[in-house]
């Protein structure tokens, strides 16, 4: 009970002050049949700090962590080195344990971070403006589709075959309940992205085209051509970036004509964490300002004329507009945004470019090495730090066999596309700055054994 | 005006700092002015050392190589450490003092939780690793799920929602899917006036039409109005319990029975579950779905706005429609992750689908489970009892100086509700809130719930000591007296902060969301 400061004497004094005999007198509005007589049955009693740490440590020990094995997974979650100062700074109690900055006079620290974050994200994505983050990339992708619907007053969105299947599934779930029509194209293993087929599908009913950059198979679509085609029909281009490190080397989607750019910010500062919390990035053209979902931080002045920051444009939000809000979201990924922003401040544009070059170089080394394994072919011509290889057998079996050798050998496409047998032999491989030459050699040797 | 009061406040404690000399730096000792990173950085600088790794001479990027590096400022490590440390000192936080925020619940964040969440086996595992390599991570999910089901008396739980509002969406999508499975179109969801703004926004996002249900004079849902509106077009109701007036909805079981009899479902906003955890199981009150904000009840840190986590417990009627993926523990002790490919094989063919890319907020699950194991079933019961005790103590200690509209209608639960009724002409809740900042506390929740004019919602939580609560009471008492007396210095509060009152209107009228050279 080390977290509870009231003593038995305090409790007795306070009950007397309130004028009741016992604590259950304060629960008198709970129907008697619903009030538990003692602690809820079947659950253990409290445990010491040491005992809890031992229990959780045992559970942690049952996992093979990415840093403890040659590791080649990506597909929307990436292992990057996080500078020690990032985690140190986000653990400062003034950031970690602060509330939503609704009282700006005592939350300028968080608010200035959010303003800096918005600027960093807008510059990275190549958009005019950005919000203060959403839950993750997949929900940000749906919010972008919903916003395109509000902007264009059209309901049909084209989801290209290269969009992460979990992002497609998330959008499809929501669209079923909002009467949006999503035309989800099937992924195909035919060399580089079929930009022509996407362009041909756009018509006057189209609200938005959603294109991942680089896509789920690691290919790099021609955003400029798709943007031009979409805009010629009055539709928006939504670009989705699951690996923001790629933007250290690739042209920013906004600069290529994307109207809305969303992304997963996990790569910078956040860590793998078995899938969450992650960080949804959201940037767009300035003319859509009042249609943006989520939280926005703006610059203003205080009563003495000093530069200050405040949450703003809350008339879009649920606590003011209730059922007419742009979104039901009432939070952001504040601490993850802070981690991202610190990591980005350490990198700057020059550091991000250097990091991206190293990632790309490692991926090229990995691609060249696995191509030497008999029966393995590399699908992509162009890629950043992940690419698809075609194996002579089911990739899930191969990955399981690699795991038995303590190698975390990529994401089998069969895991992502369980109902598409044509993709079963595809394996998505990723390299980052954390990938060593020894890791690559270990993978190649193990692949030769298991294939 | 400006008469001394019983709490010791004196008129000369008013306007401060009027004759301070200016400084060149803008700093006043530890009262810091911090530039933006864009104003601090030098071009081409960075604060990360990279291995001298091979960088491929010929990029395989097609034609998309960018012409110049992104225009992002870089700083060296010492500059970054100072920048963020200095910024951190302009924040109030629970580590510095109480946040008596009704319905938002800010409690102590144990550091053991942080230590556990950073164990490599949790922090450094990928969501798509082969499941045999993440057995411990999956067991964290199933263990936490088991506790949530036991504490709520519900047979199922969906763990993937990423925040409370996302959990609301999950619950309403389950209701939509259940109605569809029954072949029924029920377009309307009933939401009481006192509901969080997320409730109507969520119902609208899930494709429902929202109709309001009024509150009674004693701060609860008007049962007669609600039951009168039930019918074949009603999908369900969304009720917060304990509610946003700080009261227990004593008729919830009656309401649930009536809604079920009319073919609808009951959604309970579980934001205030921290006041009844270990004492009341919402399942016993007929609830079909309820989200649990892990930070509110189970102490995961708020982080200046997030991330949250909003698991949703479900009744047997809604469980078949719960989202993918989810973790299960087989009889032989092997944890399994059920995804699209094998949902059928695991007897879950009717899921409404996926609502986020991966498995939810794992980093929050480890923290919440650590907290739950630390408290145990006995400790969690003590948590809600102490939270309710502290809130009622505040209500009783202040009801003579602050209007307490529902104090006559039974004990409050986790939070005490006051209003600005009785303040001098021109003085409102906002002045009390800003004055509380000068007293060294974060303001309480203000102007909510909307059913009370000038509402002030004070929630101490269980992690405040009696001495600390007494200090908060003394400050609120003093402020109430100053508000009643019309103390003009209150109108310009706060005075002892990095910034004085911030112009929110200017920010909205001329939005400036990014820095420009």
Automatic annotation (TrEMBL), chain A:
Its EC number is 1.4.4.2. Keywords: Oxidoreductase. Transmembrane segments: none annotated. It is an enzyme of class 1 (oxidoreductase). The keyword Oxidoreductase applies. One of its GO terms (molecular function) is glycine dehydrogenase (decarboxylating) activity. It catalyses: N(6)-[(R)-lipoyl]-L-lysyl-[glycine-cleavage complex H protein] + glycine + H(+) = N(6)-[(R)-S(8)-aminomethyldihydrolipoyl]-L-lysyl-[glycine-cleavage complex H protein] + CO2. The glycine cleavage system is composed of four proteins: P, T, L and H. In this organism, the P 'protein' is a heterodimer of two subunits. The glycine cleavage system catalyzes the degradation of glycine. The P protein binds the alpha-amino group of glycine through its pyridoxal phosphate cofactor; CO(2) is released and the remaining methylamine moiety is then transferred to the lipoamide cofactor of the H protein. Belongs to the GcvP family. N-terminal subunit subfamily. This is Probable glycine dehydrogenase (decarboxylating) subunit 1.
Automatic annotation (TrEMBL), chain B:
Keywords: Oxidoreductase, Pyridoxal phosphate. It is an enzyme of class 1 (oxidoreductase). Residues 384-481 form the Glycine dehydrogenase C-terminal domain. Residues 201-303 form the Aminotransferase class V domain. Gene3D superfamilies: 6.20.440.10, Aspartate Aminotransferase, domain 1, Type I PLP-dependent aspartate aminotransferase-like (Major domain). InterPro entries: Aminotrans_V_dom, GDC-P_C, GDC_P, PyrdxlP-dep_Trfase, PyrdxlP-dep_Trfase_major, PyrdxlP-dep_Trfase_small. It catalyses: N(6)-[(R)-lipoyl]-L-lysyl-[glycine-cleavage complex H protein] + glycine + H(+) = N(6)-[(R)-S(8)-aminomethyldihydrolipoyl]-L-lysyl-[glycine-cleavage complex H protein] + CO2. Its EC number is 1.4.4.2. It comes from the Bacteria. One of its GO terms (molecular function) is glycine dehydrogenase (decarboxylating) activity. Transmembrane segments: none annotated. It holds the Pfam family Aminotran_5. The glycine cleavage system catalyzes the degradation of glycine. The P protein binds the alpha-amino group of glycine through its pyridoxal phosphate cofactor; CO(2) is released and the remaining methylamine moiety is then transferred to the lipoamide cofactor of the H protein. This is glycine dehydrogenase (aminomethyl-transferring). It comes from Novosphingobium humi. The lineage of its organism: Bacteria, Pseudomonadati, Pseudomonadota, Alphaproteobacteria, Sphingomonadales. The gene is gcvPB.
């Amino acid at each position: 009970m080390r977290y509870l400061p009231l003593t038995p004497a305090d409790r007795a004094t306070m009950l007397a002050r309130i004028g009741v005999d016992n604590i259950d007198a304060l629960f008198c509005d709970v129907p008697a049949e619903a009030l538990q007589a003692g602690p809820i049955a079947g659950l253990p009693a409290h445990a010491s700090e040491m005992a809890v740490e031992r229990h959780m440590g045992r559970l942690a020990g049952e996992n093979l962590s990415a840093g403890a094995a040659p590791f080649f997974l990506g597909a929307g979650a990436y292992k990057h080195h996080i500078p020690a100062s990032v985690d140190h700074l986000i653990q400062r109690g003034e950031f970690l344990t602060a509330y939503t900055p609704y009282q700006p006079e005592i939350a300028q620290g968080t608010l200035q971070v959010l303003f800096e974050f918005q600027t960093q994200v807008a510059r990275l994505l190549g958009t005019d403006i950005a919000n203060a983050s959403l839950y993750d990339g997949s929900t940000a992708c749906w919010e972008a589709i919903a916003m395109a619907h509000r902007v264009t007053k059209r309901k049909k969105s084209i989801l290209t075959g290269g969009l992460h299947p979990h992002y497609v599934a998330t959008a499809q779930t929501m669209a079923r309940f909002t009467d949006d029509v999503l035309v989800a194209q099937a992924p195909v293993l035919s060399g580089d992205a079929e930009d022509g087929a996407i362009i041909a599908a756009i018509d006057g009913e189209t609200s938005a085209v959603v294109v991942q950059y680089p896509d789920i198979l690691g290919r790099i679509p021609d955003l400029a051509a798709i943007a031009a085609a979409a805009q010629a029909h009055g539709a928006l281009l939504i670009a989705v970036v699951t690996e923001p490190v790629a933007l250290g080397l690739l042209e920013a989607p906004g600069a290529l004509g994307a109207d809305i750019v969303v992304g997963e910010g996990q790569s910078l500062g956040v860590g793998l964490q078995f899938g969450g919390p992650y960080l949804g990035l959201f940037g767009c053209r300035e003319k859509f300002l009042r249609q943006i979902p989520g939280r926005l931080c703006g610059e203003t002045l205080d009563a003495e004329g000093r530069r200050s920051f405040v949450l703003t444009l809350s008339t879009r939000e649920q606590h003011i507009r209730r059922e007419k809000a742009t979104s039901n979201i009432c939070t952001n990924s504040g601490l993850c945004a802070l981690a991202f922003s610190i990591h980005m401040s350490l990198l700057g544009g020059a550091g991000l470019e250097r990091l991206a070059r190293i990632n790309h170089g490692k991926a090229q080394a990995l691609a060249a090495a696995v191509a030497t394994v008999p029966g393995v072919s590399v699908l992509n011509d162009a890629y950043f730090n992940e690419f698809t290889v075609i194996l002579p057998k089911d990739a899930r079996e191969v990955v399981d066999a690699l795991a038995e050798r303590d190698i975390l050998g990529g994401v089998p496409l069969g895991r992502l596309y369980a109902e598409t047998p044509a993709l079963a032999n595809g394996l998505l491989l990723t390299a980052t700055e954390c990938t060593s030459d020894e890791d690559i050699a270990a993978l190649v040797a193990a692949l030769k054994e298991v294939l | 005006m400006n008469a001394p009061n019983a709490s010791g406040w004196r008129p000369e404690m008013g306007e401060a700092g009027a004759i301070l000399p200016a400084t060149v730096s803008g700093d006043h000792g530890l009262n810091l002015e911090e530039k933006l990173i864009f104003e601090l950085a030098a071009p081409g600088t960075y604060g990360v050392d990279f291995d001298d790794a091979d960088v491929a001479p010929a990029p395989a990027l097609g034609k998309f190589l960018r012409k110049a590096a992104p225009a992002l400022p870089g700083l060296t490590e010492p500059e970054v450490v100072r920048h963020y440390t200095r910024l951190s000192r302009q924040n109030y936080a629970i580590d510095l003092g109480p946040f008596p925020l009704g319905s938002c619940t800010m409690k102590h964040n144990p550091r053991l939780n942080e230590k556990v969440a950073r164990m490599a086996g949790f922090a450094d595992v990928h969501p798509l690793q082969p499941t045999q390599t993440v057995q411990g991570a999956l067991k964290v999910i199933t263990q936490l799920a088991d506790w949530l089901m036991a504490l709520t008396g519900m047979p199922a739980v969906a763990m993937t929602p990423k925040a409370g509002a996302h959990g609301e969406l999950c619950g309403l999508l389950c209701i939509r899917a259940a109605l569809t499975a029954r072949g029924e179109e029920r377009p309307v969801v009933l939401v009481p006036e006192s509901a969080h703004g997320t409730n109507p926004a969520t119902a609208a996002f899930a494709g429902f039409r929202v109709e309001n249900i009024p509150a009674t004079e004693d701060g609860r849902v008007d049962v007669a109005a609600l039951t009168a509106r039930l019918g074949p077009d009603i999908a369900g109701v969304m009720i917060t319990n304990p509610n946003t007036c700080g009261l227990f909805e004593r008729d919830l079981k009656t309401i649930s029975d009536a809604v079920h009899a009319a073919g609808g479902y009951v959604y309970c906003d579980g934001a205030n579950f921290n006041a009844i955890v270990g004492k009341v199981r919402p399942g016993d009150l007929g609830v079909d779905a309820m989200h649990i904000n892990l930070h509110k009840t189970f102490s995961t840190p708020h982080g200046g706005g997030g991330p949250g986590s909003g698991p949703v417990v479900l009744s047997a009627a809604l469980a078949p429609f719960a989202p993918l993926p989810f973790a299960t523990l087989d009889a032989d002790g092997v944890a399994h992750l059920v995804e699209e490919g094998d949902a059928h094989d695991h007897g879950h063919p009717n899921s409404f689908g996926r609502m986020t890319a991966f498995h939810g907020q794992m980093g929050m699950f480890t923290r919440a489970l650590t907290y739950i194991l630390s408290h145990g079933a006995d400790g969690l019961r003590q948590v809600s009892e102490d939270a309710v005790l502290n809130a009622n103590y505040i209500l009783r200690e202040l009801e003579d100086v602050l209007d307490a509209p529902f104090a006559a209608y039974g004990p409050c639960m986790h939070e005490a509700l006051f209003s600005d009724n009785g303040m001098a002409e021109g003085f409102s809740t906002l002045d009390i809130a800003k004055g509380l900042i000068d007293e060294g506390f974060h303001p309480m929740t203000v102007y909510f719930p909307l059913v009370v004019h000038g509402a002030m919602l004070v929630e101490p939580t269980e992690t405040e000591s009696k001495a600390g609560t007494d200090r908060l009471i003394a400050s609120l008492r003093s402020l109430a007296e100053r508000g009643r007396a019309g103390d003009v210095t209150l109108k310009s509060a706060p005075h002892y902060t990095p910034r004085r009152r911030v112009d929110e209107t200017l920010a909205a009228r001329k939005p400036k969301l990014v820095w420009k050279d």
